[in-house]
Amino acid sequence: MKVPFNRPYMTGRELGYIAQAHQSHRLAGDGPFTARCSRWLEGRTGAAKALLTHSCTAALDMAAILAGIEPGDEVIMPSYTFVSTANAFVLRGGVPVFVDIRPDTLNIDERRIEAAITPRTKALVAVHYAGVGCEMDAILELARRRGLLVIEDAAQGLMSEHRGRSLGALGHLGCISFHETKNVIAGEGGALLVNDARFIERAEIVREKGTDRTRFFRGEVDKYTWVDIGSSFLPGEIVAAFLWAQLEEAEAITARRIELWNRYHERLEPLERAGRLRRPLIPASCRHNAHLYYVLLPSVELRSRLIERLRERQINAVFHYVPLHSSPAGRRFGRAAGSMEHTDHLAGCLLRLPLWLGMDPDVADRVAREIEAL
Length: 374
Ligand SMILES: Cc1ncc(COP(=O)(O)O)c(C=O)c1O
Fold this sequence. Notes:
The chain is α/β, with parallel strands linked by helices. The chain has two domains: 14-248, Aspartate Aminotransferase, domain 2, CATH 3.40.640.10; 250-373, Alpha-Beta Complex (Aspartate Aminotransferase, domain 1). Helices cover 37% and strands 14% of the residues. It has helices spanning 14-24, 32-45, 56-66, 83-90, 136-146, 200-207, 213-217, 237-247, 250-273, 300-312, 328-333, 341-347, 363-372, and strands spanning 49-53, 74-78, 95-99, 121-127, 149-153, 161-162, 165-166, 173-177, 190-194, 286-287, 293-296, 335-336, 350-353. The protein has an eight-stranded mixed β-sheet, with helices on both faces. Strands 7-6-10 form a three-stranded antiparallel β-sheet, with no helix packed on it. It has a two-stranded antiparallel sheet with strand order 11-13. Strand 6 and strand 7 (165-166) form a beta hairpin. The protein binds pyridoxal-5'-phosphate. Pyridoxal-5'-phosphate (PLP) binds at residues 55-57, 81-82, 84-85, 127, 153, 155-156, 177, 179, 190.
């Protein structure tokens, strides 16, 4: 493909920082580069504590442990999301309860959450699709009133804001991804943002195989021992060194992505007016990070035709999640609460367009021409 869907962007400083980690003989987790990345994340997001993990999946696994999910506990979430959102809770014996999305932002419909709450509901997961924030005011107020934990799946949300506050730093816990497909990358990587300070001590223990090793390294205990359940969730310094090169440029990366995103948005505006497609909607409460640009076609058939036309012109456009509520594991481990009409319909109509730094901005014009000719 001449225009791949994604091409990871490198700042040019990754190898220099990796060489520094190599020369310093500090390769395990929680060394100097991890500390730099964590302080940066705390400063940028306002989280009380940022803990680097292997992936957003690992951060979600930690969140499920910290939420105290026990067999039979229910966790409300959208069905239009990545499998890890649900898997993390199923691994603890939890039951995902899927709620339909809003047709405008494709985020969980906050007006449908309350009807899905039962005496077994323990938490709800707000997934910020495409780095565009959920209706967090309503979600946080509902959770407070019903005594539920809020976990943000902000896998795609670094550098996005809801009313001036960072996505991932609004709920009790937030999970971020640095996977190669994200805006700021480490190959595989992630972070858990601990926003409710009550969870900090246990989060450090869970991340360090259930031991109090972090306290030992800080000199707070004279030996470390097994104190809780946990696993190895922390990345080594090579990954953190790579990530540091990216975080240093996070502002510039976002600004350049916004330019490409805006180009699509402007070029496709007449097609939306003509009723040929729908463009992403960004609520006034949200400052987004241009994580992805998608269009909603009127039908699955038109989407398939467009994918084919673009492929013939060497442009790779891809659809996204297959809804979890109708997947084999989703049916086995979870259940849908109410109608899933928007999820079912929109999942079939959504097409993600190429967006990566270094891409020719004219791709927006070429895509628009193919849609016009459909
Ligand atoms: C909404 C959502 N949650 C979680 C993940 C998992 O992230 P990771 O690959 O870092 O584990 C993804 C990955 O794309 C995602 O889109």
